[in-house]
Design brief:
The structure is a single chain. By secondary structure, the protein is an all-alpha fold. It has a single domain, classed as MFS general substrate transporter like domains (Growth Hormone, Chain: A), CATH 1.20.1250. It is built from 18 helices and 2 strands. The protein has helices spanning 14-25, 27-33, 39-45, 50-77, 80-98, 104-122, 125-133, 137-148, 150-163, 168-188, 203-211, 214-244, 249-277, 279-302, 307-333, 340-355, 358-364, 371-396, and strands spanning 2-3, 9-10. The termini are far apart. Belongs to the major facilitator superfamily. Bcr/CmlA family. Its main location: membrane. Pfam families: MFS_1.
Amino acid sequence: MSQTNNGTSIAVSLKLLLPLLASIVAVSPLAIDMYLPAMPLLADNFSTDMPTIQNSLSIYLLGYSLGLFLVGPLSDKYPRRRMVLIGLTGFFVFSVLLIFAQTAEQFLLLRFCQAFISSAAIVVVPGTIRERYKENTAKGFSYVSMIMMLAPMVAPSIGSIMLLHSWQAIFMFLAGYSMLVLLAAYKFLPEAQHKSGNKSLNFFKRYRVVLSHKSARLDILSSMLVSLAFFAFITSVTFIYMTVYNVAEFEFSLLFACTVLGLMTAHFTNTRLVTRLGSRKMMALGLSIGVTCASGLLLVNFLEYPLFYTVATLIPLMGSISIMAVNADAMVLLQFSEEAGTATAVIGILRFGVGSLAGPILAFFYDGTALPFAFLMWSSIFIVFLIQLIHLVRIKR
């Protein structure tokens, strides 16, 4: 039971709260994935090249990271519900403005602003899950992620349908979706059960508390590098499937949906096993699958095997990435009871900050094949393996 701004009590069960939180988090993947099929059209419409439009994804991630930096500590000080309403309202406004973009520069600026303000809504979700699930936080993350994965599964297909009208229709859809979620959050989202955070700590002291926590650092680094691999996929997937392997838009949507289905399966598996094995062992399981599949992906692209082999290694690899991500985040957040928003911001800043580098890195090593992508995926996962190995050695000492 919790209070709204007008003093009315709201009782929300997990059966309602989890889909609501997932709908809030889904704002970001919808904003990222829906316009992927429109990238070639956007390049033509704004009379620019494809790399410029591809880098709009990196700009979105950068805006989101900077937004997290500002609102993370604020979410530990001010009501979470208020932050969500501000973030969703801002996302709606900039989605509408994007419809009227006339140049590539306007489009990039508005995407940055759209991402920046949306962070206010999303940053409070992990803290809410941690509050409800406590030591089973990874299970809660997986439930929300599993529901939220419906968004990226259908997003490219919705984007393709919207393109039958215009690219502007994609942002009309995003505006409508964010308004519906805003209304649902206003009516049903409860305030925190307990006051979150120590209000006496200032903005930078909150970051100092999180960043000085030695046992959380390696898991934060692991989460960051897993995210680099994830956003390398998001940045490159259109190019790999539609340009390197010449698949049609409909086939691209099916392949993307199969990958998201693999992610959902991985999250469901995590919800079944994490309460018995714990997040650390699930992290090790995901990492072992990830290293194997990333090595396979690198090999089949080096040998220039057909599309089937890339798909066969990429789908389980993305599933392993999802397992690693939710468990790394859970292990970090469990270290912080009063700075959950700041810890979420640190994870998000590093995650989306390094994710924004995926586009420039891949552009720098561009050779017309999927090999640079495969190598970036492999190197990211291998470094996570080394980080977790260091963690294991420290524990044994």
